[in-house]
Amino acid sequence: AQVLAIVEANKDLLSKKGSGFDANPEDMIKALQRISDRTSARKVSLVALDSFNLKKQDMSYCIIKDDKLKRVTVVFPHNNVALSGDWVNKRSFKMTQMKLPRTLKAKVSGDRIDSCGIHQGFGAYLNDELKAKIVDDLLTVVTPKYKVYVTGQGMGAPLASLFAFHLAFHRSPLLDNQPVTCINFGSPRVGDSSYWRACQLLEIAGKLRKCRVLTDTDALPTVPASSDYAHAGYQLRLTTSSSASS
User: DSSP alpha helices (H): ranges in the chain?
Assistant: First the structure.
C-alpha cells in the first residue's frame, strides 16, 4: 500500500518522457492495487523504504514484514543506477579483502581463513554505514518469533548476499538463533573461494541458508568471468521445459 501511494503521488512525473520508467503508470497502479489487496489479507506491510529517488531511480533497499508467515524480508532491487554504473562503466573486477570475525575462524580446522575476497564495487556500495542502518531498521520490527529473509535480483543480488553474510556473523538476540535465509535471482559472482568456504561454514553452523536462482538466459551469473571468483550457496536453475535442476 505504501509503494502504491508513492506511485500514485508521482504519477505525472512517471508519465513524462525521459523519466526512465518504461511501464505505464496506470498499469503499474492497477498491478500494485492487486498486490495490495492480496497482501492486506495476509497482513503484509512495508516497514522501511530507503533512498527512494524518482529522478535518480535509485532505491537502496526496503524491508517487508509478513505477520501471517512471521517473516521479515530485506529486499535489494535490481534498479540501482549507482551500482549499475559502477559495474557497467568501470568494469571493475577488482577484489577487496574482508576480515572474518573470530567466531568463524574458531570453527575452521586447518583452513586458516582469516579473510576473504569480495568484489570491490559491491563491497564499497554496501558500506558499514548502510549495513548499520539496515540492521537498525530490522531491529525495530524483528522479534524472536520472526524469521529473517534477504533477497535481491540482478544487481541487487550481490548486495543481498553480502548483507546476509554480514547478518549471519553479527547476530542479535532478536534473531533467536534462527538462520538468515538468502534467496537471490540472477546474481553475479560476489567473492573468491575463501568467501565460498566461509558461506559453507556458516551454513554448517546453522547461521545461514543461501540459494541462488537463475535461468538459462541469465547473463549476470556468468560474470565476473574470472577464475578468482566463485559462486556460493545452493544453485537452483529454472529451465524453459517446466523443470528445475540444481
Answer: 2-9, 11-15, 25-41, 81-90, 102-105, 120-125, 128-139, 157-169, 193-204
Q: Taking Cα atoms as reference points, which of 141, 236, 115 lies closest to residue 182?
A: 236
CA distances from 219 to 5, 23, 184, 192, 210 (A): 34, 23, 14, 19, 20
Q: Is 72 helix (H, G, I), strand (E, B) or coil?
A: strand
Instruction: Tell me: cis bond preceding 144? Omega within 30 of 0 counts.
Output: no
pTM over 0.85: no
**C-alpha cell of residue 246:** 540444481
Per-10-residue mean pLDDT, the chain, length 246: 60 58 63 62 62 54 87 83 54 79 58 81 88 89 87 92 90 74 94 92 90 90 88 89 56
